[in-house]
Structures are given as C-alpha cells and as structure tokens.
C-alpha cells in the first residue's frame, strides 16, 4: 500500500467516544433474523447474526453480494425498508439500549449523530447543485445549531481532517469538480460532522481505483485511531481490509460462518468459504498460473440448501454437511467457525 501523507491535526478534535457500558459492548448485534417478504415468497436474508464492537475497534464484515452484510448494517442504522423487510427477532444494543425497541424519534437521534454510515457511491450521496462546503455546513447548522460562520470554520477543519488539499479554497466547489477519491473524502467529512461514535463504511472504495482505495482505507484507519471511533467496514474484498481491521466476520447466506482476529484468519482460515476467498486474492509473489475461484454461485435465499448452506460449493463436503446444520465451533484461539470440519480445515487435513 502506498504511504499517504499524515493527516493534519484538527485544531478542534471531535469529542472522544463515551465509554462502553459496564459489562457490555459499545454496539452488539444479537441473534438477528431478518426476512424479505415478496410476492414470490419469503427470502431469509439474515439468519442469526451476532457481532459486537468496542470503541476504537475495526470490524470488517466480509461476504459476496447478497450475503447479508449490508442488510445488517441497514438494520443497525434503522434505514431498512419495512416492508418488504421484516425483523423477525434479535437485538441491536447500542450503549446498552436495544435500538429495535426505541421510538422513531429517539432512533433518529442515534442515526447520524451516534452511528453514521458512508456509502459506496459518493456522487449520488452528495447533492450535485450545492457546493460541498455549504452541504457540510448545512449539516452542522441543522443538526448542531451552529452559526453560519462557525459552520464554515468547522467545515474547513473537517475537510482538512480528511486530507483535502487547499480545503478553505474548495468550500465553494461542487461535487462534480472533485475526483472520485476526493468526493469520498467529502462524504466522510460530512459524516464526521456529527462526531459519530460508530462509523459504518459500506464498500467505501469499490468505485475507486486501487491506489485511491488504499488511500481511503488508510484515511479511515487514521480517523478511527485519532477519534477513537468504532468502525465497521463492509466489503466483498478480503484484500483491502488486511491492514485495517482488528477482527473479521465472514458472512455467507445471512450467517456469520467465521469470526476471527485478522491475523489468525489470514494465517489459517477455519472455514472452507474463507479459505476460498483468501485463495482468490491475487498475489504479487505468484506470477502466472490461474487464480483460484470458489465454484458455483451464492444460494437463492428463498431456497437455502439443507444442512450447511455452503455444501453445494464446498470442496470438503461430506454427507453430514447435507443433513445437519453446523453450529458455531469455538477453536483454541477463540475464533468461531460454522463448519463440521473446522479444525480439519484450519489444520488443512480434511479429505
Ligand atoms: Fe463444507 Fe461441510 Fe464445512 Fe459446510 S460444514 S463448510 S459443507 S465442510
């Protein structure tokens, strides 16, 4: 990864995150089940997802398109379309409160101010007819009641925080006058205006070229550290999170199939799906030869395969995989894997 220029120190840093409630995590998703009810049937998109996050921590949530990673994030934000989505059961606890039980007015207070989200497509998230400085300032005026002059000053600070060169002189520029990477920085600045304690980044670099991807990832890592935010990075690309994440939750067919700290997972995956994802990352030290891929396609969530949902694609499959749903196995290093042969896959001894 190229080394980015260090971020300027903000003269007025956002308030540090508040402490985790005693005995709990800052954010905790517990046994979440979500289905989509459509004219064609019921799609079980989230099937018992649990994960947690503490201040200053980065969790990467990884999976192919349709694995449920973005739907979980939308449920945390409270922006799921209901219907067709229906939260069947589970809890989303933030600082000890279950967000799913909060009235919409209180939910709105949490959204953006406590937990914020940035999206893949910065261009469509920004309003094309207003200058970016105005858009950042408007958030500050509307939600924090700042005066016009204070909002302008703070907008410059935020643009400097996300390393936009010549920030003060670019306040009057429109979104189309920024490159893709710079637009993503503007959107991150807008999101940081509310000083959230949890930032969810949903595929924040997918639309960008590789060098800019690395710069945005490094920026998010710097901001997380400097502001003590908790960060959830949603991605389909295991390659982009290696240097940034503390832990990785791998999702498949609406379940977390492996959850481990980043080093253990890269060193020796304990689920065949994770192993397949790792083997499909291009490596600079392996020139020539064919890149490995995971055979088959993700399942139709209206007809999830019996037993282990990954069994039609799994090179380790046995009859028990077709008949019995695997539960989470806890391995020696504390990681979990929803595979009957987790230890064998980890040790790479399965037949
Ligand atoms: Fe493969 Fe069986 Fe493990 Fe599922 S339970 S991932 S099919 S080995």
From TrEMBL:
Region spans: Disordered: 1-23
Coarse class of the protein's main subcellular location: membrane
Compositional bias per record (Pro residues), positions renumbered to this chain: 1-22
Compartment(s): Cell membrane
Top-rank lineage group of the source organism: Bacteria
UniProt cross-references to PROSITE patterns, sorted A to Z: ABC_TRANSPORTER_1, ABC_TRANSPORTER_2
UniProt keyword Lyase present: no
SUPFAM superfamilies per the UniProt record, alphabetical: P-loop containing nucleoside triphosphate hydrolases
Pfam family, one: oligo_HPY
Record bears the keyword Transport: yes
Membrane protein topology class: Peripheral membrane protein
CDD domains: ABC_NikE_OppD_transporters
Alphabetically ordered keywords of this record: ATP-binding, Cell membrane, Membrane, Nucleotide-binding, Transport
InterPro entries according to UniProt: AAA+_ATPase, ABC_Ni/Peptide_Import, ABC_transporter-like_ATP-bd, ABC_transporter-like_CS, Oligopep_ABC_C, P-loop_NTPase
Domain ABC transporter: 27-278
Family, per entry: Belongs to the ABC transporter superfamily.
Protein name: ABC transporter ATP-binding protein
Organism: Micromonospora fiedleri
């Amino acid at each position: 990864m190229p080394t980015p220029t260090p971020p300027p120190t903000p003269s007025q840093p956002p308030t540090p995150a508040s402490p985790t409630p005693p005995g709990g995590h800052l954010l905790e998703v517990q046994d979440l089940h979500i289905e989509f009810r459509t004219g064609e049937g019921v799609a079980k998109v989230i099937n018992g997802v649990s994960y947690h996050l503490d201040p200053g921590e980065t969790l990467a949530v990884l999976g192919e398109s349709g694995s449920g990673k973005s739907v979980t994030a939308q449920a945390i934000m409270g922006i799921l379309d209901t219907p067709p989505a229906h939260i069947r059961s589970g809890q989303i606890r933030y600082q000890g409160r279950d967000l799913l039980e909060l009235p919409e007015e209180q939910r709105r207070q949490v959204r953006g101010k406590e937990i914020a989200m940035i999206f893949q497509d910065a261009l469509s998230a920004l309003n094309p007819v207003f200058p970016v400085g105005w858009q950042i300032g408007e958030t500050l005026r509307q939600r924090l009641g700042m005066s016009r002059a204070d909002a302008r000053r703070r907008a410059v600070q935020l643009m400097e925080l996300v390393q936009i060169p010549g920030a003060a002189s670019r306040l009057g520029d429109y979104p189309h006058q920024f490159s893709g990477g710079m637009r993503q920085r503007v959107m991150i600045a807008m999101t940081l205006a509310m000083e959230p304690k949890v930032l969810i980044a949903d595929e924040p670099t997918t639309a960008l070229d590789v060098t800019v991807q690395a710069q945005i990832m490094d920026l998010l890592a710097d901001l997380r550290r400097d502001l003590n935010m908790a960060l959830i990075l949603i991605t389909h690309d295991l390659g982009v999170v290696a240097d940034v994440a503390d832990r990785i939750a791998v999702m498949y067919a609406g379940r977390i199939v492996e959850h481990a700290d980043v080093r253990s997972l890269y060193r020796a995956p304990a689920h065949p799906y994770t192993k397949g994802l790792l083997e499909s990352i291009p490596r600079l030290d392996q020139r020539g030869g064919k890149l490995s891929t995971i055979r088959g396609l993700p399942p139709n969530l209206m007809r999830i395969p019996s037993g282990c949902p990954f069994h039609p694609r799994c090179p380790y499959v046995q009859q028990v995989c077709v008949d019995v749903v695997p539960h989470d196995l806890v391995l020696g290093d504390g990681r979990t894997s929803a595979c009957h042969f987790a230890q064998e896959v980890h040790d790479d001894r399965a037949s």
